[in-house]
Specification:
This is Nitrogen fixation protein. By secondary structure, the chain is of the alpha+beta class. Helices cover 31% and strands 17% of the residues. The chain starts with 7 loop residues before the first helix and ends with a helix. Bound molecules: iron/sulfur cluster.
Length: 170
Amino acid sequence: MENPQNSTEDRSAHPAPVTWCPSGTPDRPESVVLGVRSGPEGQVVYLETPVPAAEVLGAVPEGIAPTRVLRFASHCVPECANRVGTDCGLIERIRTVPSGPTASATASVPRCHLRPHCTWWHQAGVEACHRCPAVTTLNSPDDELTTLVADPATTPEQLREWITADTPTD
Ligand code: SF4
């Protein structure tokens, strides 16, 4: 994987270091496979080393969206709809949703090759890594909550309202 911190030339060309989106797209030149979606819950199992997306896309059976079986990482780009200033709005929306036991503060974080360059890690630290394996790049339109979380137009306040309204009261 490209490491901009190793290149003096890159540093001068890009004053802010390039960070990587862990919910990226497979079709950019730099795109790599972050992990494989596995098991009944589709949790991501992270690759030890990045594999260029272009090397694996041909192996995904026709008719299956690559993001259904794999998670990709690609550069965070200023034109991303999830950008809020220099931050990622997606991880902030994800953090708004109450976490399960696997995301407790004491749980270990996955081994992940992207961490030194990961936008979410730099922005939200361990909490991002606890939430990350459950993130789907492809969302079911039947799942209203994940659809709301994925929508860049959703604010954390709207999410909190939705969650409160959906939480049964005794
Ligand atoms: S949030 Fe954590 S686990 Fe997910 S890609 Fe970034 S460093 Fe890896």
